[in-house]
Amino acid sequence: MKLVFLVYDSRSGSTLLSREIAAQFPDVYVSPEIRFDALFGRDAGWWKHAADGRVLRLLEAGRIPEKLGLARDELRRRSSGARGVRPLIEDLIICAAARDGRGPPDVAVIKSGRHLRAARRILADIPDARFLYVVRDPRAAIASKLMTERPYVPGQKMAWAGVGAAALQWCWYGRLARRLSKSSPLLALKYESLLKDSAGTSEAVAQFLGSRRGSGGARYRVPDAERAIHQRAIADGIDASRASAWRAELSPGDQAVIESVCGREMRRWGYKTDGSLHPIRAAALVARAFAVSVARIAREAATRVGGSR
Fold first, then answer.
1. Is 125 in contact with 182 (CB distance < 8 Å)?
2. CA 144 → CA 15, 44, 148, 166, 217, distances in Å?
3. How far apart are CA 149 and CA 151, in angstroms?
4. What band does 309 get if pLDDT is binned at 50, 70 and 90?
5. What pTM does this model have?
6. Mean pLDDT, all residues of the chain
7. 231 CB-near residues (< 8 Å, 6+ apart)
8. What is the three-state SS of the chain?
């Protein structure tokens, strides 16, 4: 089974891309957003003790049972006999595909933005791993994060740490993807290109995956808890207006912060900045945004520490 890791910063169009791949490639299974990063980089001695429940606990912490629709007893049995991360992933993907009435796929696309951070460990365990990176204009991605509630943390927005922290993360992910492309097969896709030329994007994906497009693909399944934040992506059709919707959704101040922090990385990915604010005014907004982010991160850290006692 060919393993391909779909990586991204949040709100970058990964669910829309997943929907299109699942529908157009019958031999490809596309997973919901699932994280295996805690399992990469473990040595053989660690895996010898999988029967003590350590693997199961990590899978449950990542909500993998409910996201893949697997019963806990079945997951316990399969995880306790696991002897490595690759055979475990392949086994779980085969089980999930069977649950959907499908046979073992030739290609599995594993969807998780966090796997970009674990790319080195992934390649150490799975040397032939491939990566799909979907990138979106940071002004659009962050505008969406500022409005969207986290599905598993009610009341908290996805950009909970503020626009400054969100801008830094977008830059970080962009740099990680560019660095990864030098050592591993990586196809970078722009969200805006998917909206403008879905056929061309699908052809690029077909060549990268080594798969043929055809009928008989699957409907991409989104976990119930995440359906609210992916309503546009899982609806039929492609809404090309989303490429520029950020202009009505993002405040001028937040735009200035994002362009000031992300400008160089944006240009590397082909995005143009407006730069309409005076540099001194923009610098003051950036300083204020970073102060807000630091305060929110400190408050969140204190809350977590207090909750763990």
1. no
2. 14, 42, 6, 11, 29
3. 6
4. low
5. 0.94
6. 94
7. none
8. CEEEEEEECCCCCHHHHHHHHHHHCCCEEEEEECCCHHHCCCCHHHHCCHHHCHHHHHHHHCCHHHHHCCCHHHHHHHHHCCCCHHHHHHHHHHHHHHHCCCCCCCEEEEECHHHHCCHHHHHHHCCCCEEEEEECCHHHHHHHHHHCECCCCCCCECCCCCHHHHHHHHHHHHHHHHHHCCCCCEEEEEHHHHHHCHHHHHHHHHHHHCCCCCCCCCCCCCCHHHHHHHHHHHCCCCCHHHHCCHHHHCCHHHHHHHHHHHHHHHHHCCCCCCCCCCHHHHHHHHHHHHHHHHHHHHHHHHHHHHHHC
Fold exhibited by the domain 2-212+220-308 = Rossmann fold (3.40.50)
Residue count of the chain, please give it: 309
Q: Using one digit for the tens of pLDDT, what is the confidence trace for 278-288?
A: 889 999 999 99
- Contacts with 298 (C-beta within 8 Å, 6 or more apart), sequence order: none
Q: How far, in Å, CA of 256 to CA of 279, rounded? A: 9
Integer Cα distance of 173 and 282 in angstroms:
23
| pLDDT tens figures, 213-229 | 988 788 898 988 898 89
Q: Going by C-beta distance under 8 Å and a sequence separation of 6 or more, which residues neighbour residue 171?
A: 138, 261, 262, 265
Write the CA distances from 116 to 7, 61, 112, 194, 214, integer angstroms: 6, 19, 8, 21, 29
Instruction: Give mean pLDDT, residues 35-45.
Output: 94
Q: Encode 282-299: b = buried (16+ Cβ within 10 Å), e = exposed.
A: beebbeebbebbeebeee
